[in-house]
Write a structure and sequence with these properties.
There is one protein chain. It contains 20 helices and nine strands. By secondary structure, the chain is mainly α. Strands 1-9-8 form a three-stranded antiparallel sheet. Helix 16 packs antiparallel against helix 18. The protein starts with a strand and ends in a 10-residue tail after the last helix. Bound molecules: NADPH dihydro-nicotinamide-adenine-dinucleotide phosphate. NADPH dihydro-nicotinamide-adenine-dinucleotide phosphate binds next to helix 13, helix 16, strand 9, helix 18 and helix 19.
């Protein structure tokens, strides 16, 4: 139910109202994230994942020489191939039929419609690439063979998309009332200005970039690395197969539940800037596939028992992730009128204001997983991330970078989500935190 109250300021992007200096400092990942990715790329691609070898090269040859000599290189053919891939995804996103889904109400009170054809797009993409390989038009090991040029192209597109988002927000914003200008252009470039930048009524840049560019690339890169391992070594190792299976479960879950994804923080709360644009064009495809990138070139052979434990842990993590997310989605969809773990759901009924002056009702679930911890879904994701890294079967630190990154990302998210929850729901959020005091793991944090 919604009630008209008055025009007022409402919750929104974290960071608004900070000093220019604090905003600029908060935006430093614009430099650090590409640098970190560059170092990861060089270590994995040029030094076989060995940090000591990278260290010796840096010491003996100098930092700038190493960075310049081993960085990703522009390659016209690869850039054209990548452009075709992006164009194909645009066509599927815009024209492939699919169900219509309704997104979450924005801080300004808009409720947007999306075409959630992601699962079909995933199937069409993989069938099309499979057919191309079958007919000899594409080398199945294309991705690892052209990795340097691809990483260059992904960076190029990531920066261009970030610049486009920044320019569009100034020149032709969609839903200006949901746009946030912090007063610091660097922060605006980094965290984004527009909440839901669109071309026309339906081409949603954020859903497109996150889903069709970031998530779609994940399984394509994995499968190409599996093919490469087969081409180079004549067999496919259990490690790379099991990692690819876990990645595929996660990606298919994402597309199968695309309507649910519209209610997650990425789509419902994050603004569209470098963080999401470069993040999904470049960071996600490179960082999230580290395991198969490594295994494609360096097959490992951990014991069957080890692989079984690591893989089962991954499945448990996925089951936890899905079960927690489903509980919240179901309780909200049924307005609290349902069972959670066999008992009537317990929740806090609360309200929030949108900047058009309307008051809306919402529910904060406080039983089931959501009564156990405020982010048990993140715990599922972390179990899954660690098991993906463990499946590689090496103590090489670089191979654990993904799990480390996810730990930092999700812990930071817990904190950001708290700030937003408090500003959106006020004392009801405080009540919820009193009832469910733990953020991630009861007794720990
Ligand atoms: P959540 O799905 O936990 O969504 C948080 C939002 O849910 C809050 O902002 C709030 O939004 C609402 N909410 C919070 N507490 C409650 C409650 N008790 N009852 C009902 N609603 C509540 O987080 P994310 O969107 O970050 O993550 C979604 C999934 O995606 C997670 O499983 C996460 O692990 C995964 N993920 C994966 C990433 C990856 O890179 N692989 C990155 C980030 C997330 P509101 O009230 O405004 O609706």
């Amino acid at each position: 139910m919604s009630v008209k109250i008055s025009k007022m300021k409402t919750w929104g992007r974290y960071g608004a109202g900070r000093s220019w200096l604090r905003s600029a400092l908060a935006a430093t990942p614009v430099v650090f994230a590409p640098m970190a990715l560059l170092i990861l790329f060089i270590t994995l691609f040029r030094f076989d994942g060995s940090l000591p070898d990278l260290y010796f090269a840096l010491r003996d040859q100098g930092v700038w020489h190493v960075l310049d000599a081993y960085r990703p290189r522009f390659d016209l053919q690869t850039t054209l191939a990548y452009s075709c891939w992006v164009a194909f995804q645009v066509v599927l996103f815009q024209w492939l039929p699919g169900p219509r889904s309704i997104g979450q109400r924005t801080p300004a009170g808009h409720v947007l419609e999306y075409r959630t054809n992601g699962l079909r797009a995933w199937v069409v993409t993989h069938l099309a690439l499979g057919a191309l390989c079958w007919k000899g038009g594409l080398d199945p090991g294309f991705v690892p063979r052209n990795w340097s040029g691809l990483v260059f192209a992904m960076n190029l597109f990531g920066f261009l998309a970030s610049a486009l988002a920044f320019a569009k927000a100034h020149l032709m914003p969609t839903h200006l009332e949901d746009a946030k200008f912090s007063g610091c252009w660097l922060y605006d470039f980094y965290m984004g200005i527009e909440l839901n930048p669109r071309f026309g009524d339906h081409f949603d840049l954020k859903l497109f970039t996150n889903g069709r560019i970031g998530m779609m690339a994940w399984t394509v890169i994995d499968l190409s690395n599996v093919a490469y391992q087969y081409q180079e070594f004549g067999s496919v190792s259990p490690s790379i197969l099991l990692v690819t299976i876990l990645h595929t479960i996660y990606v298919l879950d994402f597309f199968n539940n695309e309507e649910w994804y519209l209610r997650t923080i990425d789509i419902a709360h994050e603004h569209y800037g470098f963080y999401l644009a470069w993040g999904c064009f470049t960071f996600l495809p490179v960082m999230y596939t580290l395991q198969t990138q490594y295994l494609g070139r360096h097959p490992t052979s951990p014991s069957g028992a080890y692989l079984l434990v690591a893989f089962t842990t991954g499945l448990v993590g996925y089951a936890l992730f899905r079960s927690v997310n489903d509980q919240k989605a179901r309780v909200r969809r049924l307005n609290g009128d349902c069972l959670v773990w066999g008992r009537p759901a317990r929740y806090i009924r609360t309200t929030y204001m949108t900047s058009d002056g309307w008051q809306h009702e919402s529910i904060l679930l406080a039983s089931g997983w959501w009564g156990w911890s405020r982010h048990a879904n993140y715990l599922g994701d972390l179990l899954l991330s660690f098991s993906m890294c463990a499946l590689v079967g090496t103590t090489n630190v670089v191979m654990w970078a993904y799990a480390l990154f996810m730990t930092i990302l999700l812990m930071h998210r817990c904190i950001r989500d708290e700030v937003r929850g408090r500003s959106k729901y006020g004392t009801a959020w405080d009540d919820y935190c009193k009832r469910v005091p733990w953020r991630l793991v009861p007794g720990l944090w």
